[in-house]
Specification:
Pathway: Lipid metabolism; fatty acid beta-oxidation. Keywords: Fatty acid metabolism, Isomerase, Lipid metabolism. Belongs to the enoyl-CoA hydratase/isomerase family. The chain is an alpha/beta fold. It folds into two domains: about 170 residues, Alpha-Beta Complex (2-enoyl-CoA Hydratase, Chain A, domain 1), CATH 3.90.226; about 45 residues, Lyase 2-enoyl-coa Hydratase, Chain  A, domain 2 (Orthogonal Bundle). It has a four-stranded parallel sheet, with helices on both faces. Helix 3 crosses helix 4 and helix 4 packs across helix 5. It is globular. The model has no long low-confidence stretch (mean pLDDT about 95).
């Protein structure tokens, strides 16, 4: 397993329970790309695919399955994080960029962003999260199959039109600035309410309406006892900005 992905999970696991953290902004370094996609040479020369030749098929399959599950778990740490995660993409955002941003809560991008679900061009089905999460983000299943089966690139405007992205900005700096502004706004709200909202939205996405309502009643039977509720209401009446304790 690439050390970068292990570290990513460790970071998000730590941020998830850090009471000083209330919202997270994730973006990429540099100006050219958030992710240029799979390094085919590295994957075939030193990755898990390079180690299966000559192995018994069942044993090779077991090793690959373990690798895939571990990789999935690293990226899923973004979704499992208790705190809202805002992702800002720019430039080339291919392959794993889609896996990562589908695990985030809010997606913003620069106008120069070029997306693609590239895995079929590399001879495999995307296996780190895109095929499981993208159909739950974008309402048009036809569009999802279009981009996943063809591996065709699509731009920021198309991503905004189908609801994959919720905001497009002139360049990376502008997108990051807007992301930070949104993160600050979320961080100023009750962490009990914010973290509960993320939990209930994700739960309800994966369950029936009836199950979601039942889970919400159980969750809020505890959360509604927080003094954050009375503090928020009193602040609204007094027309002042409330402050909330760490959670």
């Amino acid at each position: 397993m690439n050390a970068m992905w292990v570290e990513l999970k460790a970071i998000f696991d730590r941020l998830s329970i850090d009471p000083a953290v209330r919202a997270i902004l994730l973006t990429g370094a540099g100006e050219k790309a958030f992710s240029a996609g799979l390094d085919v040479e590295a994957a075939t020369s030193s990755g898990p695919l390079s180690k299966i030749g000559g192995k018994d098929p069942a044993r090779a399959a077991t090793a690959l399955r373990r690798h895939i599950l571990e990789f999935q778990d690293c990226v899923s740490s973004i979704e499992k994080c208790e705190k809202p995660v805002i992702i800002v993409l720019h430039g080339y955002s291919l392959g794993l960029a889609i896996d990562i941003c589908t695990a985030a809560d809010i997606r913003l991008c620069a106008s120069n962003t070029r997306f693609a679900v590239k895995e079929v061009d590399n001879g495999l089905a995307a296996d780190i999260g895109t095929l499981s999460r993208l159909p739950k983000i974008v309402s048009s299943f036809s569009w999802v199959k279009d981009v996943c089966l063809s591996a065709r690139p699509f731009g920021a405007d198309e991503a905004l039109r189908v609801g994959f992205i919720s905001g497009v900005y002139g360049n990376k700096d502008e997108a990051v600035k807007e992301g930070l502004k949104l993160a600050a706004s979320i961080a100023g709200k009750s962490p009990v309410a914010v973290q509960g909202t993320k939990e209930l939205l994700n739960w309800s996405r994966d369950h029936t309406v009836a199950d979601g309502l039942r889970y919400t009643s159980v969750w809020n039977s505890g959360a509604l006892q927080s003094k954050d509720l009375s503090s928020a209401m009193l602040s609204a009446l007094q027309r002042r900005t409330p402050t909330f304790e760490k959670l």
